[in-house]
Amino acid sequence: MDIKKKKILVFDLEVAPYDFDTYYDEETKEYLIKFANTEEEKLKAIEGLVFTPFTSQIVAIGMMDYNKREGAVLVNAPKETALDSSSKLASEKLLDYDIPKPEEGTESEKIYNEQNLEKLTYLCGSEKEIIEMFWKKIKHEGYNMFVTFNGREFDCPFIMLRTFLMKSRPTYNLMSGTDFNIKGYHTDLMKELTFNKHSPTGARRKFSLDFYCKQLGIPSPKADGVKGDMVKDLYENKEYQTIADYCFGDVVATGNLFNLWSKYLDFNNS
Questions:
Q1: Predicted local confidence at residue 13, as pLDDT
Q2: Separation of alpha carbons 106 and 15, rounded Å
Q3: Which terminus of the chain is more solvent-facing, meaning fewer CB atoms within 10 Å of its CB: N or C?
Q4: C-alpha separations of 250 from 49, 71, 100, 197, 244 in Å
C-alpha cells in the first residue's frame, strides 16, 4: 500500500471478564459451563469468557495515528482519575520508524521533522463513553486503514459487538468483507505473518506479538513485566495507570511491527 495516501490508525484493546460468581444468575452460570464435566474444565470455561464481548468488557482502547505520531489511551475508569502519559514518553523511545516524507510546507511535514511522538493523551470515562470516543475519532480523522495484531479475530468484532451492547452505533464497519479481502482497509499482522492461514506447526505457525517483537529486535510490550492475563486483576485493583501504559506499549509494538512488514513484506508497497 502507499502509506502516504492512507490515514492509518493502529489500535488495540484490553478487556476484562465480568465476575462469574457475582454477575450471572444461576441459570446463566449453568449455561456458560454446561459442556464442562470436571472442575478443571469448568475453570477453563470460565477463564475463556474473557474473550467474548457478551461476557467481558473493554477496559482500555489504545490508539495511534501512524503518520501523525499521535497516540491516545481511553481507559474505562472514573473521569476524575488522574493518569500520567508523560512517564511513558520519558522512559523510552516509543516509535522506531521513519514516517514517509510529506509534501513541503504542510503540517504533516512539521510533524515529520520533529521525528518523535507528537502527542500522547490518556482519557478516562465509562465503557460506553470511551467506545464512543473511539468511533468519533475514526469519523473525525477519516481513517481508512486500520492496523492490528489479531484484530480480525478479536479486537474488531469485540468492539463492534460491545458498541451494539451499549446501544450505540459504530462509525466504520471494521468487519466488512471476508477474512481474505480486507487488505483495502485493514492490515492484521497476525494474518500477514501467517499468510492468512496459520497452522499449529511449520512455517505458518502463529506466535504472540511479544515473540515476533523479540525476534525482530522490536522493544517488547511485555518488557515491564505486565502480561495480558494480568489485566483482570489490575482492573479490579484499579491500577488504571499500569493498564494504560501496557495498552499503549502494545500499540507501539504493533506500529513498529507494521513498519517492518510494510517495508519488507508488503508487495503492494514496493
A1: 98
A2: 38
A3: C
A4: 22, 12, 22, 23, 10
Measure Cα distances from 192 to 31, 127, 239, 262, 266 in Å. Answer: 36, 31, 34, 10, 9
C-alpha cell at 89: 514518553
Q: Which of 57, 72, 87 is nearest to 9 (CA)?
A: 72
| Averaged pLDDT score across all residues of the chain | 89
**What is the model's pLDDT at position 97?**
56
**CA 138, CA 117: separation in Å to the nearest integer?**
19
Instruction: Give per-residue pLDDT as tens, 51-73.
Output: 999 999 999 999 999 988 889 99
Which is nearest to 12 in space by CA: 260, 264, 256?
A: 256
| pTM score, whole prediction | 0.89
What residues contact residue 209 under an 8 Å CB cut-off, 6+ apart?
Answer: 149, 221, 250, 253, 254, 257
Cα three-residue angle 23-25-28, rounded to 5 degrees: 100
Residues 73, 248 contacting (CB under 8 angstroms):
yes
Other Cβ atoms within 10 Å of 81 Cβ, number: 15
Strand ranges (DSSP E) for the chain?
8-17, 56-65, 70-76, 119-125, 145-148, 186-188
With CA atoms as reference, report the closest residue to 190 among 108, 261, 105: 261
